[in-house]
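User: My instructor asked us to take a sequence, write out its structure as tokens, and then describe one feature of it. I'm not sure where to start. Here is the sequence I was given:
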Amino acid sequence: MRHLPFLVKSSFALALLACATLTVLADDDKQEPDVIFLPTPQRVVEKMLELAKVTKNDIVYDLGCGDGRIVLTAARKYGCKAKGFDIDPERIKDCMANYKKESKQVQDLVKFERKDIFKQDLSEATVVTLYLLPQLNVKLVPQLKKLKAGSRIVSHAFDMRGYKPDKKETVTVKDDDGNERSFDIYLWTIPLKPDNDR
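Assistant: Let's start with the prediction itself. The structure tokens for your sequence are:
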């Protein structure tokens, strides 16, 4: 993965991204993603947002946004502002490809940025979505604790060691071959509750 220079602000790049709200940043020392990209099934995306009780007044942050489906679904379905962050420029390209398929109304609510999520200020968010490994969820705890009281964190597949979720739900999804797969979803509310049993 290459370090992108600030030349992305050249006239050529501005023309290429004229209709986008993408900000490509090059101030991160880290070059490689912490996890491989595995898309969250759309039904799981919808359940994550439902479990977090997203409304039009929320600001949703997706950390490690992949192809942007959580961000775009939140804006489309709930009419809320939503931002996606990913360190991988290939994922940001995927986000922008999907962004361009959306209505102007949805596009106006959405922003994607190439950033290291572990250096990101999350204080503006009221809902944070995750699909990371448990140890990475824990690494985010200092940032998550700075969220406003009542903010929600929802994670696909993985819990947050040391912190008790408010809810855990399982979603069953059929694949194209008719096979069923189950996916766990975890919800926490700020302030986080220590899990004294672990």
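For the description part of your assignment, you could build on this observation: Residues 89-99 form the longest helix (11 residues). Try explaining in your own words what that tells you about the chain.
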